[in-house]
Amino acid sequence: MRAAEGELRILMLGDSLTAGYGLASRDALPARLETVLRAHRIDARVIDAGVSGDTTAGGLARIEWALADDPHAVIVALGANDGLRAIDPAVTRTNLDRLLGILAERGLPVLLAGMVAPPNLGPEYAGRFDPIYPELAARHGAVLYPFLLDGVATVTLLNQKDGIHPNAAGVEEIGRRMLPAVLCLAGRAGHPPDRAMAEAAGLAAGGAWFDCE
After folding, report:
1. Active site residues
2. In terms of pTM, does the model score above 0.85?
3. Residue range 164-182: average pLDDT?
4. Quick one: how many helices (H) and strands (E) in the chain?
């Protein structure tokens, strides 16, 4: 894909995990993703549209307002609070489906950051909740990052005292793990990464994510 000119604006729509609960703004996930994109020679601005406590219903309700920043691509990172509140997974699915549909109508490339059900809710709930993300990503053609807290959830050294929200080191680890998916999103938005640089960093193994356009 031919590179677009100018700044790439990515909207990150999420909850406290996006808003950087308990952290300085420079340590929040949108700021970290912006840093790693710029390190890969992509002139990017990641817009923080995280609201602590937000559910998928809240994200759906404010999507039009959030899109006023006129982004070129969107990261959707919602659902953690749906799980914590044991909201019916059918409701979560409907909200995310509608949200992704709105973004598709706008022609915006999307990265869907997945979530998994809290283990205390049992296997029946998880069996209905966890498949939502891969199924909707496939349905809407979104880039999928299967689990936003992959490698960080339950790791004491990477979380704040509440055991839920990542600390600055945890956010850095999330950013490192998300990088291939975020670079894929940037490519879909017309800002492909420097391939040689990505290969040198070991991010292009097999070339699979370069084929995501």
Report:
1. 16, 162, 165
2. yes
3. 95
4. 10, 5
